C-alpha cells in the first residue's frame, strides 16, 4: 500500500507511522529521516538542502520532492510505503502525484489523524525533558514525574523546550492550517481520505487506522 499520513503537530504521526509501517510491512518514510540521510551521505540533494538550512532558509519544494522520489524508488519500497511529513502543501502533493504517475503508480489512501486543537496544545506544552538526557521525557498530565521538575530516572532537572511553549505550538498550528491542511481537501476530491480520531491509547488509534485502510 502507498499511504500518506497527515495531521497537526502533536497528533502522534511519528508513533502511528512506525506501528502502521510495521503492521503493513512497508517502509516508514519521514521528511526528517530523508534530510538526515541525504545530508549525512553527502548526496547532491543533501548538499543543496544543507546550504539552504545553513543560511536559515526553507528548503525548496523541488529538493524535498527529489529526496522523496529517490527514497520511494528504493527496493524496500517496491510494495508500498508510508509517507510521514510529506507532502506538506498542495504543490508537493501535485508533484507526488506526477512522480507516481510517471511510474504507473498511485496512492492507495491518505490517513487524516484528527485531534482537537486544545488537545494538541495540552499534549505538546505539557512535555518536560531531562537536561541530563533528552531521552527521558515526561508530561505534566499523562506521565508526571514523582517529584515536580525532577527526572525519575537520573534526578536531573526537567524543563520545557522553547518550541514546546503554548505560544509556539499555536504558531505551528497556524502554519499547519494554512499550508498543510489544504492537502486533505485535495486528496478528498480523489476519494483517498480516511479521517480517524487520534484520541485515546496508541494501540486504539492504530486499530482505527488499520480498520480504515481495510475499507
Describe this structure in words.
This protein is α/β, with parallel strands linked by helices and 215 residues long. It has a domain at 2-115 and 179-214: 3-Layer(aba) Sandwich (Rossmann fold). 48% of the residues lie in helices and 15% in strands. The protein has nine helices and eight strands. It has a five-stranded parallel beta sheet, sandwiched between helices. A hairpin with a 6-residue loop joins strand 5 (127-130) and strand 6.
Low-pLDDT parts are none
Instruction: Output the radius of gyration.
Output: 18 Å
CATH superfamily of the domain at 2-115 and 179-214: P-loop containing nucleotide triphosphate hydrolases
Say what oligomer this is.
single chain
Judging by the overall fold, what is the CATH architecture of the domain at 2-115 and 179-214?
3-Layer(aba) Sandwich
Strand line-up across the major sheet = 2-3-1-4-8
Q: Find the count of extended strands (DSSP E, 2+ residues).
A: 8
Mean pLDDT: 93
> Which class of secondary structure composition applies to the elements?
alpha/beta
Strand % is 5-15%
The shape is: globular
Keywords: ATP-binding, Cytoplasm, Kinase, Nucleotide biosynthesis, Nucleotide-binding, Transferase
Subcellular location: Cytoplasm
Protein name: Adenylate kinase
Main location: cytoplasm
Amino acid at each position: 500500500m502507498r499511504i500518506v499520513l497527515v495531521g497537526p503537530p502533536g497528533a502522534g504521526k511519528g508513533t502511528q507511522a512506525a506501528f502502521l509501517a510495521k503492521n503493513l510491512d512497508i517502509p516508514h518514510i519521514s521528511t526528517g529521516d530523508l534530510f538526515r540521510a541525504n545530508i549525512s551521505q553527502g548526496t547532491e540533494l543533501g548538499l543543496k538542502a544543507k546550504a539552504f538550512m545553513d543560511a536559515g532558509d526553507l528548503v525548496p519544494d523541488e529538493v524535498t520532492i527529489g529526496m522523496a522520489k529517490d527514497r520511494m524508488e528504493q527496493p524496500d519500497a517496491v510494495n508500498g510505503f508510508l509517507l510521514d511529513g510529506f507532502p506538506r502543501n498542495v504543490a508537493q502533493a501535485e508533484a507526488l502525484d506526477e512522480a507516481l504517475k510517471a511510474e504507473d503508480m498511485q496512492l492507495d489512501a491518505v490517513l487524516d489523524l484528527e485531534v482537537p486543537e486544545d488537545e494538541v496544545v495540552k499534549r505538546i506544552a505539557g512535555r518536560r525533558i531531562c537536561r541530563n538526557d533528552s531521552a527521558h521525557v515526561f508530561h505534566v498530565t499523562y506521565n508526571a514525574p514523582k517529584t515536580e521538575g525532577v527526572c525519575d530516572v537520573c534526578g536531573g532537572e526537567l524543563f520545557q523546550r522553547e518550541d514546546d511553549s503554548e505560544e509556539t505550538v499555536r504558531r505551528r498550528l497556524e502554519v499547519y492550517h494554512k499550508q498543510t491542511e489544504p492537502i486533505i481537501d485535495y486528496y478528498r476530491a480523489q476519494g483517498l481520505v480516511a479521517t480517524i480520531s487520534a484520541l485515546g491509547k496508541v494501540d486504539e488509534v492504530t486499530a482505527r487506522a488499520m480498520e480504515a485502510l481495510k475499507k
